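Q: My labmate handed me this sequence with no annotations at all. I'd like to see what the chain might look like in three dimensions before we decide whether it's worth expressing. Could you predict it?
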Amino acid sequence: MMKRNIIFVDDEQEVLNGLRRMLRDMRKEWSMTFVNSGTEALHHLSEHSFDVIVSDMQMPGMDGAQLLTGVMKNYPGVVRIILSGHSKKEMILKSVGAAHQYLAKPCEPSILKATIERACSLRAMLADNDLKQIVAKLDSLPSLPNLYIEINNEIRSSDSSLKKVGEIISKDAGMTAKILQLVNSAFFGFYSRITSVNQAVTLLGLDTVRALVTSIHIFSEIKRTKVGPIGVEDLWNHFFSVGAMAREIMKLESGDTRLMDESFMAGMLHDIGKIIFITNLAEKYETTLDSGIDSDLSLSDIETKSLGADHSSVGGYLLGLWGLPDSIIEAVFFHHRPGESHENSFGVITAVHVANAIAARENPGYTVGALSEIDRMHIERIGKTDRIPVWEKKGEEILHRV
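A: Here is what I predict for the chain of 402 residues:
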């Protein structure tokens, strides 16, 4: 097995020595480089190929945010992780765009190892190196113009409320993904897995969200109204519909609020890879969609043939880099092929898969190629075949209401 190449950057030699001791048992799997400054790190990056960079935040000369910004620009395929002690809020906000994930010192060895291993394993999800670089370079995803305007107006209002802010963000896949990335890292000191936007916004607080929106500009506006035969607004309606259906289908099978939240979030984000294609490979993706209008192939097969990967792989890769909960990443990655997952009983993957298939059947105009269908072999494997008519009825009710 080829070793992972990891570079650690910290101006304190004692910290680097501690990392060496902590990670000694990983020497057979990782090739590790330890350097004392951002300048030295960039020098090594110019001469060698690395999979992951782990950097301190506060360093003399070039700080961690500046270093990772340079890495993002010049070596976009490298996974960027901040490992730092408590910093000033301004420094934390400064690194939001440049870092994929943020770990707090002192960091448990198991957490550091798991984070790096997870980041490296994700790279196997995408075989195309160009796509890896495109995705790794992303620091945000665009929103619909009306929602972008709405969140900016609300956050600047003298009587803005966390409830209203949460409601707006919950309507938008790009905003949802970014907020969940931040709240599920140690950026702001939270360590539990958060899958509810309202909870995320409440934990961050109105002042932090206001700073993220107005100063850091973590949200942006999509400039296109259509790509190929598909209206962009139709895509957003599809995101929300699948999220709402997945939540209600999960409610039918489990009263667990956490699983319902995860199902809604995964449904909202299941096609986020399409946003990546639309905003980064617009012309090529438009050609890809046009070629699939009368095709008998699924959109996933059409995308893979034309672009090197499909939207579920690209979306899952981004959410994995951003450190979102595994249940959401897996649902995004397997929403077209649940039978390839390890899910052996009803869970979030199945809820999103079924919701997406129902939405495709009822509103086929949002996509091209052969429509997604419920994988009945998978449903039979998990022992839920008799529940399909119940899910379909509930899905139709949700779509009518939405």
